[in-house]
Design goal:
Creatine Amidinohydrolase; binds glycine; elongated; binds manganese (II) ion; three-stranded antiparallel β-sheet; alpha+beta; 35% helix; six-stranded mixed β-sheet; 2 domains; Creatine Amidinohydrolase, Chain A, domain 1
């Protein structure tokens, strides 16, 4: 089944006649294409409208939906209205997780039928990746691993976090990444205690840890990885923290499988850090799902009680952050299987001293 068929097959369960797709990731999921258009999927067909900027590419790449050109005289809304009326569609689901309030008001005013929040329908399907999606995520991750190797040869004392972040972007895009999956995080020395530090003018110097968190997109699908490396020899305490984080990550990875609740996976890692005396410094969740968006659900977090689906792709990213001093995070990406998981991040996790 392609993704349009998968969405169509879910409509009866949600009591819907159609699903309206308006977000970039929704379009990409359904069509494998993004053209700032409007997609309506019914139980037995689909209509995609896009404008002159994208129409040629859409006609070349999109299958499984009738493609119509939206023009200033006959735009997305009139085309959608005609389709809804012709097919006598009544209950229309929409992406309530991403639609703005203004957008909702506009669709509600201009389209016939009842708009019904239906984010869950798409989230449920997107949580479990198929082989085509996994192939793109593996490619994105392989590019990210290569970029990490390249950055190790680039870093020198005296560079700024900003320069390293810019180079990471270059390394990923020049190797085939279409764009970054989020702005890279590069945090040196004391900045490393801020999990989402913004790279700035901080100069990297010997004796510092440098945490780099980065990823790219291939055909919309994300990668995500973090490595913390030492510039010059780390102190014994820094080494201890590093190995505690690595042990926690390994424990989480050992617990990660389809069917496990997110909180079981999180707890397996958290326990290791608690027992090593660093529990209070692990201030976020073990991991999040990713796919077309860098953060998807479900999470591997202490709050998540639902079983993780087989085929979910999650990050494994414990960290220890000691305010004002330093931080360590190590992040891989895992595909959950029935009996465990596959770690698709290939870069070494032994402490690298540059
Ligand atoms: N790697 C960025 C994040 O997970 O938020
Ligand atoms: Mn992450």
């Amino acid at each position: 089944m392609n993704h349009i068929e998968k969405i169509a097959a879910q409509l009866p369960e949600y009591g819907l006649d159609a699903m309206l797709i308006t977000s970039e990731s929704g379009e990409r999921y359904a069509l494998g294409f993004h053209g700032e258009g409007l997609l309506l999927i019914t139980r037995d067909g689909a209509q995609y409208t896009t404008d002159g900027r994208y129409i040629e590419a859409a006609r070349e790449q999109v299958t499984g939906a009738e493609i119509l050109l939206s023009t200033p005289d006959r735009g997305h809304m009139p085309l959608a209205k005609e389709y809804i009326e012709a097919k006598a569609l009544h209950n229309i689901g929409f992406e309530s997780g991403s639609m703005t309030v203004d957008g909702y008001r506009k669709y509600e005013q201009e389209l016939p039928g009842i708009l019904t929040p239906a984010q869950k329908l798409l989230d449920g399907l997107r949580a479990s990746k198929d082989e085509g999606e996994l192939a793109l995520m593996r490619r994105a991750q392989a590019i990210t691993d290569e970029a990490f190797q390249a950055i190790l040869n680039f870093i020198r004392p005296g560079m700024t976090e900003r320069e390293i972040a810019a180079r990471l972007v270059y390394e990923m895009l020049s190797r085939g990444g279409d764009k970054v999956s989020f702005d890279p995080i590069v945090a040196a020395g004391a900045n490393g205690s801020r999990p989402h530090a913004v790279p700035g003018d901080q100069v990297v110097d010997t004796g510092m840890f440098i945490t780099m968190d980065f990823g790219c997109k291939v055909e919309g699908y994300c990668s995500d990885m973090t490595r913390t490396v030492a510039l010059g020899h780390p102190t014994q305490e820094m080494e201890e923290v590093y190995s505690a984080v690595l042990n926690a990550q390994k424990a989480g990875i050992n617990a990660a499988r389809g069917g496990a609740a997110g909180r079981e996976i999180d707890e397996a890692a958290r326990r290791v850090l608690r027992e090593a005396g660093y529990g209070e410094y692990f201030t976020h969740s073990f991991g999040h799902s990713l796919g077309l968006d860098i953060h998807e659900c479900p999470n591997a977090s202490s709050k998540e009680t639902r079983p993780m689906p087989v085929g979910a792709v999650i990050s494994a990213e414990p960290g220890v952050y000691i305010p004002g001093r330093f931080g360590v995070r190590i992040e891989d990406v895992l595909i959950l299987k029935e009996d465990g998981c596959e770690d698709i991040t290939r870069s070494s996790k032994d402490l690298i001293v540059l």
